Amino acid sequence: MQLRKIKRALLSVSDKSNLIPLAQGLHDLGVELISTGGTGRALQEAKIPYTDIQAVTGNPEAFGGRMKTISFQIGSALLFDRERDAQEAQNLKIEGIDLVVCNLYPFQKVQEAGADFPTLIENIDIGGPTMIRAAAKNFKDVAVLVQSSDYEGFLAELQSQNGQTSLALRQQLMAKAFNHTADYDARIAMRMDEELGKKSLRLSFKQGRSLRYGENSHQAAGFYRENSSALSLADIRILHGKALSYNNLLDVQGAVDAVQGLGGQAVAVVKHSNPCGLAKSMDQRTALEAAWSGDPISAFGSIIAFNQPLELKTAEFFQLDAEDRSQRKFVEVVIAPKITAEALEYLQQHKNLRVLELDIAGLEKAVDYRYLSGSLLVQEADLALYNQQESVTARPFPSDEAAKGLVEFGLQAIKSIKSNAIVLVQAVNQQQYRILGMGAGQPNRLVATKLAIEKAKENLQREGAEDVAGILGQCYLVSDAFFPFADNVELAAQAGIRYILQPGGSIRDKSVIAACDQADIAMLFTGLRHFKH
Amino acid sequence: MQLRKIKRALLSVSDKSNLIPLAQGLHDLGVELISTGGTGRALQEAKIPYTDIQAVTGNPEAFGGRMKTISFQIGSALLFDRERDAQEAQNLKIEGIDLVVCNLYPFQKVQEAGADFPTLIENIDIGGPTMIRAAAKNFKDVAVLVQSSDYEGFLAELQSQNGQTSLALRQQLMAKAFNHTADYDARIAMRMDEELGKKSLRLSFKQGRSLRYGENSHQAAGFYRENSSALSLADIRILHGKALSYNNLLDVQGAVDAVQGLGGQAVAVVKHSNPCGLAKSMDQRTALEAAWSGDPISAFGSIIAFNQPLELKTAEFFQLDAEDRSQRKFVEVVIAPKITAEALEYLQQHKNLRVLELDIAGLEKAVDYRYLSGSLLVQEADLALYNQQESVTARPFPSDEAAKGLVEFGLQAIKSIKSNAIVLVQAVNQQQYRILGMGAGQPNRLVATKLAIEKAKENLQREGAEDVAGILGQCYLVSDAFFPFADNVELAAQAGIRYILQPGGSIRDKSVIAACDQADIAMLFTGLRHFKH
């Protein structure tokens, strides 16, 4: 355990929260408190006795507070080796300090408050990091607290250990301290670069865990939580099933993104990051059935996300208890903001199914990073749907509420599909939309259009639709980018498509619109491309 | 300019390189040198006079060297405001120090050398960061040098400015100093976490520049270079054309990855990150033609990478000077390890073509990062091709050199294509391979197979091949993952395919092999999946 009694503690905090209970607790344990000016005044008000740091250093607080703690006396008291250097310390009249409680000038806070540059500079703490780092280096004998939320637990530990700390605790505090100073200087460095017109970026991740492997079994892999994230994909709660794999996590992101912008009851069925099924309805079970019907073959082994708490009735769609095993619908992952107890019990019948909870709506995704060899692409997330809705054809694109609903659903869908992407969306009724067919990831847009139409036809035929072309004539075909040529329109016209959405903006828009007019197709320009790679 | 004369400098360096010329130069400019122990001995040997730091601090070097510089005297000399605090400094007998030259205990070096934990702890510098950060905070008056490679330029500046530094220089040095301490503590923090069995990760990027926009015009974007990278995609040299866009950079990565593992003359034609064309030959022009022929429609507007210096004869394939404009082959980006002067001159005819140089072979890509909402996936790059080559069918898969060449080419190709992926590769002759057709990014593998076969047929027909099925019978069909069912084999058999490569490992391998035997197809199990998302 290598227990060390805390006899003297140095308190120098910028954030005074939780200070008094800690100081009182330390005092009650017989610890001598040393304190700097502001911290000392707080102790005085609480009638907790302390030694002013000037009495220890022999120096005044000087230069507008820039010099308070930096001194041979404090540095030595924290750094000397309690065994090796004991005699030397005695000769030099250095008495050890066994605990540092310090938090730093709030550089981040004043930065976020929009402080001017001189104020920022004044808020770069020099003495604080010196004490923290000195104490941390000498963790063999010294403890360090850098966060006010840690005080209570620390004091409890101390009280239970007769005023002593264990080596394990001191080592944990040490690691935390170096993370703290690393974060602090990272923020300062970025801001100082910015002031010089240089852009630098420091990202920090923790809670890393090993994954069984990466995209393939010969690739070692891990998963980390971003330090600064309020809510992270790493916060997923696994209610049932094995640990998530690398590919699961990629697909979960795709599924979560796909349902995130949708209201009502939304369900995404994802395979290889692409939603091969997506639907929205007032009823969850109906939405799942509709999403599943977008590609009932690929849906096997898929990742499925719900934007609302998952109900038993919905989960029963998977028929996990069907006697005929071929009726059982195996999926890899089910994720929802909440899984009801009954749904969970039902899903647990399948050993290999992963059942996850995550506050999907709360997941912020303002920024997107993409790592390329030795470099990083950064971009704002693609959050907008359109910046105009302009009917550009002789046949007007409808603008009633029903049409708007399907337009928005179609744009949400296309935003989630990898480029080049085409999706056909259907309003099964006023309150129910689904992907009827989609084409993803094609070098050639025409092939994506073909894939979407073929899948839609296949789905309708399987469902026994009598008037396939008639139904396709009610669907909206959505393109993630403009049509470079009229060929896509001609292909769509042949299949009976009557409504097309696209950003517009090609030099050949005229001929594309002419092809629409020729085929009596209504076309809407949205003004916004949705490439996704 | 806010010039500041350097009167006193503090030298305390762990890395002694370039020290003496700097010290001599400072001395010649009349600067008083203050030095710690080891640095002082180096000065003494070089017969450069200096003041021992103990004479300034009034304290001994103590505790095995843990205490050398931390003191009220040094802290004050660096931190006091030369205007506001001048009188106070005089009262306290503090004389300013105007320059700190300091590099830190080599924590990283001893870590990489495999030092034990106590040695690592001893190599955490406390005094150094204190001096560096104090000098940096007070950059209004004080300069700081943290890297020996900066000494020479700094001295030259000083000599040209009559021993003075400008505010601009001091501010640059300040930003560098905080980057240095941020890097230092980042490394310590990660190592200390590791010691506790915790995994944390800190990534650092610099040289950030804004891109016109991200994947789409409504997304702001930037591109950064990774600090620790020896060679980065950000090191691309643009010889001609506009700045690279976000999507260009994504595609360049795809194109570079696709040619990187290939010998001979290799060319990749990339659209939306996927190589729709890839070829290898002994002749570069031939390779380009073969790669282009993989999808001559999608190739327009593509990104093209070469693994060897680009020659004029190759570049002329684009026919940028054709009188018939429809003959001109427009591509977005051409990248090669080198662009010959003649090729560059030719390519410059096209204003919008970007011509890039990068040492593609030298680009290391051992680790892959993937950012998900508030989290990070990390994996080893997919570098291996196969871990076995097992013929599993009645008809044996050939194992001669020619077959091996095409197998390796096919695996290189499939590794670069997004999943689910199928590629058909052809040996045009013993020394020339190409992608004949590929299917990428499909939720359903069967669709990928269909796409690859259709594209291959289309290409052969366009080329006027007489015996399409006969040629397909010589091609290798490569799957990035195992076949879950025999249907893919049946589809391939119908098209006349006789050779299939796949990892194997499905519970239905038996029925897949049986389908091969039925169709007299030879199948090779490679044992390695190549998912890419």
Automatic annotation (TrEMBL), chains A, B:
Matches recorded under Gene3D superfamilies: 3.40.140.20, Methylglyoxal synthase-like domain
EC assignment: 2.1.2.3, 3.5.4.10
Keywords: Hydrolase, Multifunctional enzyme, Plasmid, Purine biosynthesis, Transferase
Cross-referenced SMART domains: AICARFT_IMPCHas, MGS
Catalytic reaction annotation: IMP + H2O = 5-formamido-1-(5-phospho-D-ribosyl)imidazole-4-carboxamide; (6R)-10-formyltetrahydrofolate + 5-amino-1-(5-phospho-beta-D-ribosyl)imidazole-4-carboxamide = 5-formamido-1-(5-phospho-D-ribosyl)imidazole-4-carboxamide + (6S)-5,6,7,8-tetrahydrofolate
Listed GO biological process terms: 'de novo' IMP biosynthetic process
Annotated GO MF terms: IMP cyclohydrolase activity; phosphoribosylaminoimidazolecarboxamide formyltransferase activity
InterPro entries: AICAR_Tfase_dup_dom_sf (IPR024051), Cytidine_deaminase-like (IPR016193), MGS-like_dom (IPR011607), MGS-like_dom_sf (IPR036914), PurH-like (IPR002695)
Name the record gives this protein: Bifunctional purine biosynthesis protein PurH
The gene coding this protein: purH
